[in-house]
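Table S2 (text version). Query chain:
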Amino acid sequence: MASRFAGLPPVAGVQAGAGLPVDATVSLRMADDGEASFPLRLVQARQVIAAVPWRQARSARGQAHYPGYFWSATMGGHVIYESRLELARLLLADFDRDVAAIGAQPFLLQARVAGTARQHVPDFLLAQADKSVRVINVKPSGKLEEPRIAEALAWPGQLIGERGWQYEIWSGADPVLLANLRFLAAYRRPGLLSGQLAEDVLAAVRPGDTIGGVISRVSGRPGEVKAAVLRLLWQQRLATDLHSHLDADAALEVAA
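Corresponding structure-token output:
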């Protein structure tokens, strides 16, 4: 997982440790189409998660990005994304057991930076199980060297850091890992398989086992047993090396 915030230069007018500008505000779009604004220093993650995306995903002929809606197991509903790179980061967040809630296009941040009124909408906010909060911007690595883009990403990060939240600029991850997660994500929805079959698969796993070995040993239709193995991998009740190609020979163990 790539985070570039630490390497970005400070922004004039937003000095680390100087405290939040008094006019730094977060605006939320509510389900009834109204808006609510809060000082950045006071807004809570639960308020952000309860809001709706600041922007909606839109498609138009000839556009360069590919927006859409991803059904999130974490949220039990759809989460928007505005590009394939955002979809990849969203997939990682949905797989992460430490993520309790996901907000996309979560808020409009406004502040006066070096005497200039600025505004910014991050890509995601993650509420973590340990009560910490991570705000994420997704940007291709080739864009990060452009001074205009680097500055546009830096000032929100410094304010968010002063708020006590984590800030991440994400540009991609191991393509093998992402390919494996895309495959496993097909099994993320509940109610697709018998719960008893999943328990039978867990009980059948032995030290040194492989995916193919478990599928061949558990009674039932092989396709259903395979689906149970893959769902358990998505749930992380079973574990394998997801940075290696996922096939029948992949080592399998019950997750700790």
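Notes on Table S2: The CA atoms of residues 112 and 118 lie 6 Å apart. The first strand starts at residue 25 and ends at 29.
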